[in-house]
Specification:
The structure is a single chain. The protein is an alpha+beta fold. The protein has one domain: Endonuclease/exonuclease/phosphatase (Deoxyribonuclease I, Chain A). Helices cover 23% and strands 35% of the residues. A 6-stranded mixed beta sheet has the order 3-4-2-1-16-13. A hairpin with a 4-residue loop joins strand 6 and strand 7. Helix 2 packs across helix 3 and helix 4 runs parallel beside helix 5. The longest helix is centred in the middle third of the chain and has 25 residues. The protein starts with a helix and ends in a 5-residue tail after the last strand.
Length: 316
Amino acid sequence: MKKKILFLIVFSLCFGGELSLMFWNVENLFDIYDDPGTRDGDFMPGGSKRYTYRAYRLKSEHLADVINRVSPDILGMVEVENENVLKDLAARLRHADDWEILIHPGPDIRGIDPALMYRKDRAAFVACSYYPVFISERGYHSRPIMRVDLAVNRGRDTLSVFINHWPSRRGGKPLSDPYRNYAADILLQAVRETVRDHPGYAIVMTGDFNDDAHDTCLQRLSKHPEIDYRVKRLPGNVRGTYYYDGEWIHFDHFLTSNIDMNRLFVKEAYVFAPGWIREAKTNGPFRFYHGVEILGGYSDHFPICLKLGFTRKNVE
């Protein structure tokens, strides 16, 4: 009995807790108000989607239902219009007073941006920066890559989280591949700079990459000797994070660098897809929109989750 108690004491000293990350493409989280600087006209009461306050409230409530079920400490998102929609979302989350919001208006013509929220009782802000993705061939800015540095594990470690929303497959995959390869090169350079300037930082790259793990842009990352691609556990009858025209695709990913070498280690990566957020016929994501029709679901992507554990060094 004494040996068992001693083992439990040593185990609790060696393992210092857990941190949960969630990423979700939330499928056009817009408010109902006009922003004259962006093309948000579809998402207003007089727009093509007839997007009323009632629809907006339902959208926010449904997103909160899923996020509360996962209960993450850090939440990355894309397709977010502004800070106000995140404040409304945070008010519906557990630990509502603990959520901090990070978002900056970017150059995307539709007005959608990457964003990150974190619980201030679980992490502390260090820095935030953006890496522009300008597609010169098309003459437009895609969504920037967002980097947020957070102090975690009671300040013992710093975690850099990169939120990505890479150029879409519009015009066909062969035509658009170079744009995502370009975004991959920008992310690689940003990771190299982070490792060079802060060799002790742990790094998590996540987002909607608009490509699968076997595609060239993801291979650019996963074949790098200092980057690990994290395979996600899938629930039954789910074979990706996105379903379109009869095809499953993994658009949403986790990659890490400088993890498993310090006090942080990866415990689990998985797709969160319980039956109630699936479309009944296909098991794909139950979307909120379908063209101009509001279906009242959740999102056209399933969220993905990553659990990190902490180990403590110098245990006697």
